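Class prep. Write one:
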Amino acid sequence: DPAVRPRVAARLTASGAVEEIAYTSKPPGLGAALPTARMTASATNVVESAGYTLVSPGYFRLFDIDILRGRVFTSAEATAGAGVVLVSRATAASLWPGLDPIGQTIDVALVEAGRPDRRLPRGSVRVIGVTEDVATGALTDAVVDRTCVYFPADAQTVPDLAMLVRTRLDDVTALTSAVSAAVKELAPDTPFTVTRMRTLLGLAVWIFQAFSLTASLLDGSACTRDVGG
């Protein structure tokens, strides 16, 4: 619930155990690829089916994502729904090969699959920063995103966002309990779930290792049959 998020964030920040709080429309490592929208680049008129995500300004600090050029959008810009975006290095190279992406604009069309995403701005948005390339899909894909456009998201107004909390301490269990206690106290009727990123990544690694072991066993059986036959 957007109305609950600021109060929970304030409670967690006051505890002193939280290093960073951020929000995103798609937490990384959950398996699904980024949603895409049809985007047209200024200067080059390159049309790309580009992946996108909505994030708060603190998202880049929380995940230690380097800003290679330009800057991150401010909280004021996120609150105002300003028409500014950051793009990944791969996106910049795809849309403006050989050109400086800072100050360029992107014309955003409708989402290509499913219902329109009403959280996205319509019309042109201006590029203010370039990030390093990262992976937001399944860990087993082992590839960075081919394209990624970051739109600003305000935690108090944008629906369907996940709240990300990074702790200063090694005791993740204590932080999980603190998040649960804060939500239950401040908004007892609000449904929510708390999931550790470590748990999500651990599950992905386990699945990857299980499939690798199965493939190795199958390969070994094939070799045995070849030798015996």
